[in-house]
Amino acid sequence: MTGKDYHAEILIQDNKCIGAYPAGQMPGDMEPPRRQTQCVSKKSAQRAPAVAAYLFFSSPLQELFRMIAVLIIILVVVAGVGLCAWYAAIVKRKNQVSRALANIDAQLTLRHELVPKVLEVAKHHLADEQDLIFNTAQFCAIGQERIGATAPRDLLEKFRAEIYLSLGLGRLFALSQNCPELKDETLIARARTACQKVETNVAPARRFYNTAVSNLRNACQHFPGRLLAQMAGLPGMPPFYQEPPDSRVQ
């Protein structure tokens, strides 16, 4: 029999090839060919999910899902970079506020060192202004206790005390000009000059602080700045005005 007209039946049992025989000459003790069909059918059924998944992901839908996945990854990366940049801007503005507060505290400390000496001299020559001297001393103590404070409540109290301290010292220096005993007092003259210098240095520091507070507030007012500020625990910082709060028009 030549290879041209040869036709064989392959017997498969338990997923194994057990022989090949010419067509119509299968041994009698072998199972009929239908077992081959049954075995192949079971094997195909086991591979069906994998074949279906391969066909599914080999289809044009695969390209669509791939593009969607890439787009989602890009959006997540862009959002992450944006949040990091916004948070960095908030931290930068917070550091500017801290530097401005440090500059203000440095100048106020110089004034606090002069106040006790001025008040001690004023007590002996301005007997009618004891309430003014007492209140000025109280405001100085409040401001001095809150040097270095960063909590909004403490800052409000410090700024208010410093404003009234400045007004009290100005009133005392004005009264000293009308008092012959104090007009030529060297200590009072030096203190007045030093306090004027402090006020001159505090003015730009106050403006820088208020600008930094305004920038920080603007960065935290809009989403996602508000969320980032809450996560970072950034409180609202109060401004530092030159005049008393109760004298400003709301």
Provide the β-strand percentage band. Answer: 5-15%
Q: Please provide the ordered H/E string of secondary-structure elements.
A: EEHHHHHHH
Shape: rod-shaped
Q: Mind telling me the C-alpha Rg?
A: 44 Å
Reported for the largest beta sheet, the result is: 2 strands, antiparallel
Q: Kindly, what is the distance between the CA atoms of the first and last residues, rounded to a whole number of angstroms?
A: 114 Å
**Spans of at least 5 consecutive residues with low confidence:** 1-18, 33-42
Number of strands: 2
Number of helices: 7
Helix content: over 70%
Mean pLDDT: 76
Strands of the largest sheet, in order across it? Answer: 1-2
**Structural class per helix/strand content?**
mainly alpha
Task: Describe this protein's structure.
There is one protein chain. The chain is mainly α. Helix content is 72%, strand content 5%. Strands 1-2 form a two-stranded antiparallel sheet. Helix 2 runs antiparallel to helix 6, helix 3 packs antiparallel against helix 4 and helix 4 runs antiparallel to helix 6. It is rod-shaped. The termini are far apart. The N terminus is likely disordered.
